[in-house]
């Protein structure tokens, strides 16, 4: 009887042992105290490229004539742009549309007749990358004289903003560290090592209006253009451990 009880007890202990080990593994671990902060960094540089968007719009009684007139004017504009040094890779047709023009006759005896097509409007929109900003004013002026009659949107940007983005990232991290130190000092704890760091979206802010006299002199007979500066902003999220 004693031997049987001993064996039974051993079996019970053997079955309980793994269960206790599993419970120990499933027990929640103490969460490491952390502090998480976000910070922005920014850097400004002068733009080195302009993106122009403008359109040739022509009207005629027939779509064929409107398309022909529009194509002739746009061909002249594109030839002038190439003569100014714009490469083919920097010219892109971004929209082409034909719109019928309607006329609504006055109702007669209470009867409303359907509108009639009286002509067509053709719009051809061109997007141009100008890599020499000093030429922007002259290009706009010449394009208008050759047939551009709608648009004129200008966006100043940078062909390779990586240097500015790198500077903005460094500044963002420095600000994040300073913010974390301020928080931990106020809380009476010590800042530990970085546990996690990530970058949020970066963006280009609109140019600041800064008129350049040298550009005004170079483009004195054309449209005055001020390029200003582009500001690039980067956001970083940093999580630090806290020392016990």
Topology:
Elements: H1 2-26, E1 34-45, E2 49-60, H2 63-83, E3 91-103, E4 116-130, H3 136-146, E5 150-157, H4 162-187, E6 190-199, E7 203-208, H5 213-218, E8 229-243
Antiparallel strand pairs: 1-8, 2-4, 2-5, 3-4, 6-8, 7-8
Explain the overall architecture.
With 244 residues, the protein is an alpha+beta fold. It folds into two domains: 34-46 and 161-243, Protein of unknown function (DUF541), domain 1 (Translation Initiation Factor IF3); 49-157, Protein of unknown function (DUF541), domain 2 (Alpha-Beta Plaits, 2-Layer Sandwich). Helices cover 36% and strands 37% of the residues. It contains five helices and eight strands; from the N terminus they run αββαββαβαββαβ. The chain has helices spanning 2-26, 63-83, 136-146, 162-187, 213-218, and strands at residues 34-45, 49-60, 91-103, 116-130, 150-157, 190-199, 203-208, 229-243. The strands form two sheets. Strands 1, 6, 7 and 8 form a four-stranded antiparallel beta sheet that branches. α2 (63-83) packs antiparallel against α3 (136-146). The two termini are 56 Å apart. The model is unreliable at 1-5, 10-14 and 208-220 (pLDDT under 50).
